[in-house]
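Budget justification aside, the reviewers requested a transparent look at the raw inputs and outputs of the sequence design task funded under Objective 1. We therefore reproduce one unedited record. The lines immediately below are the structure tokens for a 685-residue chain.
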């Protein structure tokens, strides 16, 4: 009878467990059996007098007992003592040996202005007017940088990294040395490029430069605060960059770099030797040969130039301080300091190229104004080098007989440089595409066949900005009536040289990104904007920059920063081609990477409302440009129309947790109509 009494209780226990939480073990409700000492029969008699809760306590105790017995079977062999390991901090040597300075600003750690040497007089006068003492970071950094300017080291000095709180005076640590390096004779050659993450910081840095700009160096600020065309005129009024210093945000710099008329050429910051070589060669009228020894000459080419100079075939050799160290040539009768040496060591080094082995030699130094006074006083007289020296003032009347020939030579130089520039300007406007195309020996003259457009899985994997660019590329190719086949691949960006999609493959040539595809097709003579004037082309590029930078940043923000969009859409689409756990881990890592980029360009700290406001401003500008016209610039579509369609259509047709982007587009009737008409005309058969 006891068994009959116990059975219902056990049954109730099972019923109770079926409704228990998921934390209970899967088979916790199953009855247990044990072999007793009498014969191994099942028995519940010993629990029949307990309530249901007490039975559960007994079972848990038994389970705990079995677990403890089971764990006791694992023994640790030997006499081993375990102690927590100390964390090993690995720091690179340049960080561990860094110069430290206090972060706080108080009277005890400020330094007198006279404690820092090397600033030109004009700049130092402005310093004394504007600041009373040096901050700790300035006292730590400025002496080193200014010393390298006045005492140029034989080997290029190492870079300097500064880590200091906001407001500690870091800006002057590079503003003053840059202005000191430019000196009292600004040349209109690009000497320094300062990159700032946001527009407001660009303005702040520009004000610092102007505050201490004693000698009129040309400072250009590029941040989008002013119109693109105005920035171009300020930067390069005649097509050649005339600024000594450029301060810019990354995106604005890319806009100017990828615009043919900007005049910025970071690959040729030092062209004076080339100009001087052309000018002297023209004046020589083939009476003697002029060559230049530049840093891009290596191996046999460098050896041949030096050999011709040693044998006398080349009579004039133009070179820099660093390169002249390798010129060990007897019989050099004259050294001309076209740019005055900064210190006595450089002067002696240059002068030592002539008068070797007991032979006579001359040194001619060209200078004027403040630079001449400093050179004579601080370099020559102060160091006892004013020996057998003469100073001669050159009057204009002394040069009149040569003025006409010199002006003709200048005219020839201008034509020569324009011709060189015309050849050099025939380059792909996309900077990244240029690098990729050079590395792959891109040949735009090949036939247009076997053309494939590689994209991610558009329906399952591609994210907003990727889908928009892939669609824009297809729209562009369809407008240009160029045949292609779309090949969707998981992680198509992995086969792209730039790591971005879409990727156009023409035979063996790979061309990444929309801008690269447009440039590649232009090399084949197909330009959708060919009917536009130069002014309209510049406006078109400005609008493409607006689309590519601002709209794309908004899409990046919504895709990765907006929590609901990331959790409900981005995480699943990005991880759709991976198996667990990579489909969760890799999206998280990618999100961290994108947020870092957004942080760098000032977008990560923006709120959703601020981002939507920026988005609406961009749409308003695009809507105003479109007006009632069929396309942005008239009755014919351009590259800008293809790019705009890709971004508009993507937002309109994608179901997003954040519908504000779609609603913003729909609030502009002409943009919505443009997207519908474009789709009907070029994508619907």
């Amino acid at each position: 009878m006891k068994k009959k009494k116990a059975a219902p209780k056990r049954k109730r226990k099972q019923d109770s467990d079926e409704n228990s939480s998921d934390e209970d073990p899967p088979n916790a409700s199953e009855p247990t059996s044990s072999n007793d000492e009498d014969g191994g029969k099942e028995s519940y008699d010993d629990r029949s007098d307990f309530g249901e809760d007490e039975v559960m306590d007994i079972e848990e105790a038994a389970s705990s007992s079995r677990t403890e017995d089971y764990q006791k079977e694992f023994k640790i062999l030997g006499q081993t003592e375990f102690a927590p390991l100390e964390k090993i901090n690995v720091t690179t040597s340049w960080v561990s040996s860094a110069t430290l300075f206090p972060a706080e600003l108080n009277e005890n750690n400020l330094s007198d202005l006279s404690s820092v040497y090397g600033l030109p007089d004009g700049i130092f006068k402005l310093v004394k007017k504007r600041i009373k003492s040096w901050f700790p970071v300035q006292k730590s950094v400025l002496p080193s940088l200014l010393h390298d300017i006045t005492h140029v080291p034989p080997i290029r000095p190492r870079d300097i990294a500064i880590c200091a709180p906001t407001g500690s005076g870091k800006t002057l640590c590079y503003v003053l040395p840059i202005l000191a390096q430019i000196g009292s004779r600004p040349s209109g050659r690009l000497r320094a490029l300062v990159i700032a993450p946001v527009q407001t910081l660009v303005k702040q840095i520009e004000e610092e430069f102007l505050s201490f700009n004693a000698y009129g160096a040309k400072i250009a600020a590029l941040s989008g605060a002013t119109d693109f065309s105005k920035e171009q005129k300020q930067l390069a009024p005649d097509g050649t960059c005339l600024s000594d210093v450029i301060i810019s945000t990354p995106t604005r710099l890319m806009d100017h770099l990828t615009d043919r008329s900007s005049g910025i050429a970071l690959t040729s910051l030092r062209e004076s030797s080339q100009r001087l070589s052309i000018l002297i060669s023209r004046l020589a009228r083939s009476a003697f040969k002029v060559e230049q020894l530049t840093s891009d000459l290596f191996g046999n080419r460098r050896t041949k130039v030096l050999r011709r100079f040693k044998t006398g075939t080349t009579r004039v050799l133009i070179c820099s301080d660093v390169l002249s160290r390798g010129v060990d040539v007897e019989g050099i009768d004259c050294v001309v300091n076209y740019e005055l040496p900064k210190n006595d060591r450089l002067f002696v080094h240059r002068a030592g190229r002539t008068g070797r082995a007991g032979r006579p030699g001359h040194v001619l130094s060209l200078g004027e104004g403040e630079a001449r006074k400093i050179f004579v006083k601080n370099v020559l007289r102060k160091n006892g080098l004013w020996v057998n020296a003469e100073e001669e003032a050159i009057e204009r009347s002394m040069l009149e007989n040569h003025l006409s020939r010199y002006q003709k030579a200048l005219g020839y130089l201008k034509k020569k440089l324009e011709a060189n520039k015309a050849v050099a300007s025939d380059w792909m406007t996309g900077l990244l595409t240029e690098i990729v195309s050079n590395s792959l020996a891109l040949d735009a003259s090949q036939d247009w066949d076997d053309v494939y457009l590689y994209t991610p899985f558009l329906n399952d994997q591609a994210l907003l900005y990727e889908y928009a660019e892939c669609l824009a590329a297809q729209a562009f190719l369809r407008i240009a009536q160029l045949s292609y086949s779309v090949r969707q691949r998981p992680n198509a960006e992995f086969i792209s040289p730039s790591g971005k999609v879409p990727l156009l493959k023409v035979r063996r040539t790979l061309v990444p990104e929309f801008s690269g595809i447009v440039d590649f097709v232009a090399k084949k003579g197909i330009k959708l904007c060919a009917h536009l004037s130069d002014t309209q082309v510049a406006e078109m590029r400005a609008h493409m920059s607006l689309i590519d930078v601002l709209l794309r940043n908004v899409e990046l923000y919504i895709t990765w920063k907006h929590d609901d969009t990331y959790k409900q859409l981005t995480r699943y689409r990005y991880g759709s081609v991976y198996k667990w756990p990579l489909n969760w881990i890799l999206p998280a890592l990618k999100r961290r990477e994108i947020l870092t980029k957004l942080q760098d360009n000032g977008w990560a700290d923006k709120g959703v409302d601020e981002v939507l406001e920026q988005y609406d401003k961009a749409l308003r500008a695009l809507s105003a440009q479109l007006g009632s016209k069929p396309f942005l610039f008239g009755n014919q579509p351009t590259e800008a129309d293809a790019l705009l369609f890709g971004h508009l259509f993507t937002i309109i047709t994608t179901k997003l947790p954040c519908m504000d982007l779609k609603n913003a587009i729909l609030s502009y009737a002409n943009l919505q109509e443009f997207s519908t008409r474009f789709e009907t005309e070029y994508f619907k058969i």
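The first strand starts at residue 111 and ends at 112. The longest helix spans residues 534-561. Computational costs for records of this kind are itemized in the attached budget.
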